[in-house]
Each structure stands twice: as structure tokens, then as C-alpha cells.
Design a protein that fits this description.
GO molecular function, one term: ATP binding
CATH class: Alpha Beta
Keywords: ATP-binding, Nucleotide-binding, Transferase
Organism: Desulfonema limicola
Protein name: tRNA-cytidine(32) 2-sulfurtransferase
CATH architecture: 3-Layer(aba) Sandwich
Structural class: alpha/beta
Shape: globular
Bound molecules: adenosine-5'-triphosphate
Distance between the termini: 56 Å
Strand order of the largest sheet: 3-2-1-4-6-5
InterPro entries: Rossmann-like_a/b/a_fold, TilS/TtcA_N, tRNA_thiolation_TtcA_Ctu1
Oligomer: single chain
Order of helices and strands: HEHEHEHHEHEEHHH
Number of strands: 6
Strand content: 5-15%
Length: 244
């Protein structure tokens, strides 16, 4: 394992956990495991921290299988078993349905809404009220732009979010971790690649925003940090407010 990458991600996670008070002793946490690098890294770190920190928590990994052919569910199960965890696989038709004629919306939109809903239902059934997701710093920036470009609003995903009258808490411990660092960590540690067979995986609006941002970042190394920081420094008095 590369100490440098480990330290960077560990520091970013520590900061997010601390600043947002994400995890308490005896928490029961569902980890939404997609098989992607982010959620695999998230699971790895949440597991690894347990040995070092004075608080205890339980982890339950859940994978919502979108129902495409060539599912990697069994391989993901085996991977979790090796780590000492049971993976709950929920076989659905969400991916297939979202790409069918039945759906008139954006496939990613419908699929992720159905997935999220099922994750909450399962967490509730199992008695887990925290849901850890693998969104990283780059995802948070991209969502800001996606929401501006396609929803006409300025908003993003919060590192910690209460839902359903605070019954559930979503936490995003990788909120301060950069995607390229996560990729590097996953590679250095030989994390398996669970190939996403979704037909929209490489053609989504998020992909377009990602490409747009990566071109912008190349023009000035400060831009990414500045965009991220700007989300903590909103000046409502310098926004448009027609009702005043
Ligand atoms: N099929 C799924 N089952 C369970 N959780 C999921 C699933 N898909 C996504 N998630 C959760 O939502 C987060 C964000 O989803 P997104 O679609 O951006 O994931 P991804 O890019 O496919 O994979 P990852 O974020 O793990 O690299 C994931 O990190 C994971 O925590």
C-alpha cells in the first residue's frame, strides 16, 4: 500500500467525519456498494478505521443489482466475504426498466431514484439508519454544475443530510477526497474492477460535465479548489433576489 495516497485519503475522510460529525459510537451503517472505485474505497476505509479508533460501528454492504446481463454480484459478494462482511444483493430490473420504452425520463435519473428508494427500504428493514455513499469531491462539484445547467438552481449533494424527519442520515465520508487520489489508491491496492455494464455509463450528462470541468481545470490549477471552496462561501446578498 502506498502510504502517501493512504494518508491523503485518510486525512480527507477524517476531516469530513469530524467536521460533519458523521459517525457515532454503535452506529449501524449501510454502505451503498456499487462495485465502483469510490464505494470500494469507502468500504475499505470505514473497515480499516475500526481497528484504530475508539468508537465502534457496524457496517452492512448493500448492492442494488440493476438487472443487466453479466451481473458481477457473485464476485462482489466474494470480495466482501474476504473482507469479513456479508453483502446483501438486491436483484432489481431498475437498469433495464430505465432504458426501456416505458421510461420517458433520463435513464440515470429514474434508475438512481429507484435505487435510492430501495436502499432506504432495505436499510429500514435491516434496522440501519445511516447510509454511507461513495460520492467524492469531484462528484460534489459536478453536481453543482449539473444542477445549474439542467435544473436551473444552485445546489449540490451535502456531505451529511437528514431525511424523512431525521429518521435517516446520509453520509458522504469521501466528500473531501479527490477522485484521482481514489483511483490511484484503488489501483495501488489492486482493488478488483467490477465492470459497469450500464449502457449509459459513459454517455451521461455527468460525463459531459466531467469532461468540461477537466478542460477548465487544465487552464489554472486553482480552479477546482476555488469552486469547492465557493460552496462554503455563498453570499446571498450578492445573488439575484427579485422579491426584495
Ligand atoms: N447499484 C448500487 N448499489 C448500491 N449502492 C450504489 C449503487 N450505485 C451507486 N451506489 C452508491 O451511490 C454512490 C454514487 O453512485 P454513482 O452512480 O456515482 O456510483 P459509481 O460511479 O457507479 O460507483 P462509485 O461511486 O462506487 O465509484 C456510490 O458510490 C455508492 O455508494
Amino acid at each position: 500500500m502506498s502510504e502517501k495516497t493512504f494518508k491523503k485519503i485518510n486525512k480527507a475522510i477524517g476531516r469530513a467525519l469530524h467536521q460533519y460529525n458523521m459517525i457515532s459510537d454503535k452506529d449501524r451503517i449501510v454502505v451503498g456498494l456499487s462495485g465502483g472505485m469510490d464505494s470500494l474505497t469507502l468500504m475499505w476505509f470505514l473497515h480499516e478505521r475500526l481497528r484504530r479508533i475508539p468508537i465502534d460501528y457496524e457496517l452492512l454492504a448493500i448492492y442494488i443489482d440493476p438487472g443487466f446481463e453479466n451481473s458481477f454480484s457473485e464476485n462482489l459478494k466474494a470480495y466482501c466475504r474476504n473482507m469479513g462482511y456479508k453483502l446483501h444483493v438486491e436483484l432489481t430490473d431498475y437498469g433495464v426498466l430505465s432504458h426501456s420504452a416505458y421510461n420517458r425520463e433520463n435513464p440515470c435519473f429514474l434508475c438512481s431514484r429507484l435505487r435510492r428508494k430501495r436502499l432506504f427500504e432495505l436499510a429500514d428493514e435491516f434496522g440501519y439508519y445511516k447510509l454511507a455513499l461513495g460520492h467524492n469531491k469531484d462528484d460534489i462539484i459536478e453536481t453543482l454544475f449539473l444542477n445549474m445547467f439542467y435544473s436551473g438552481e444552485i445546489s449540490t449533494m451535502c456531505p451529511k443530510q437528514f431525511l424523512f424527519k431525521e429518521k435517516f442520515t446520509i453520509i458522504r465520508p469521501l466528500a473531501y477526497a479527490e477522485e484521482n487520489m481514489i483511483r490511484k489508491f484503488a489501483k495501488q491496492n489492486n482493488f478488483p474492477e467490477f465492470v459497469n455494464v450500464c449502457p449509459s455509463a459513459s454517455i451521461s450528462k455527468r460525463r459531459e460535465i466531467k469532461d468540461f470541468l477537466s478542460r477548465v481545470y487544465k487552464t489554472d490549477f486553482r480552479i477546482k479548489g476555488n469552486i469547492f471552496r465557493s460552496m462554503t462561501r455563498v453570499k446571498p446578498e450578492y445573488m439575484l433576489n427579485p422579491k426584495t
